[in-house]
């Protein structure tokens, strides 16, 4: 149970109800972070618009790399909601979610490609306190993904840091996206 209760459908304004309907159609359930932030509808709308724009803006980074880097960030920061939701998204993208059990061994595991290992190490470096990113690491990532891909990767990891920290502060925990009906809902393209 989050530290701040969700805004129920009956207490929601018209626009929030529309956001909830869209979220249920797309994800099978209303993501709890949205339902908590709905106490400030303007922030809920801003967050939703931002998320949709970011999703459309990622064009250079391979989906598997983007999803794994965000997942690793969620694991590092201990955000069970983000881990749950991120697993569902990977499943919807047709990625191998069984290998996520080995995420802590990514550096030596053959389950992860070179590109994935580079991105996962970057997620670790960006998610630590203090941030431990090196010039060499950035140069290697730019060679691997190009400057646009590097910027996308950096932005996604930073965004996942924000999500995970907000969810952790508000005690928003896993919602059952990977075990409940939500995971069976096909994601809208």
Structural key phrases:
single chain, 189 residues, mainly alpha, AhpD-like, 7 helices, elongated, disordered C terminus
For the termini, the CA-CA separation is: 31 Å
| Count of domains | 2
Number of strands: 0
The first-level CATH class of the largest domain is given as Mainly Alpha
Helix content, binned percent: 55-70%
Average per-residue pLDDT, rounded, comes to 94
Can you tell me the residue ranges where pLDDT is under 50 for at least 5 consecutive residues?
Answer: 184-189
Radius of gyration: 17 Å
Q: What composes the largest sheet?
A: none
Task: From the 3D structure, determine the CATH topology of the largest domain.
Answer: AhpD-like
> What is the CATH superfamily classification of the largest domain?
AhpD-like
SSE order, as H and E?
A: HHHHHHH
CATH architecture of the largest domain: Up-down Bundle
Strand content: under 5%
Form type: elongated
Q: Which class of secondary structure composition applies to the elements? A: mainly alpha
Tally of DSSP helical segments: 7
InterPro entries: AhpD-like
Protein name: Transposase
Q: Topology of this protein?
A:
Layout: H1 14-27, H2 32-37, H3 41-57, H4 63-77, H5 80-92, H6 114-127, H7 135-169
Helix pairs in contact: 4-5, 4-6, 4-7, 6-7
Organism: Amycolatopsis methanolica 239
Protein name: Transposase
InterPro entries: AhpD-like
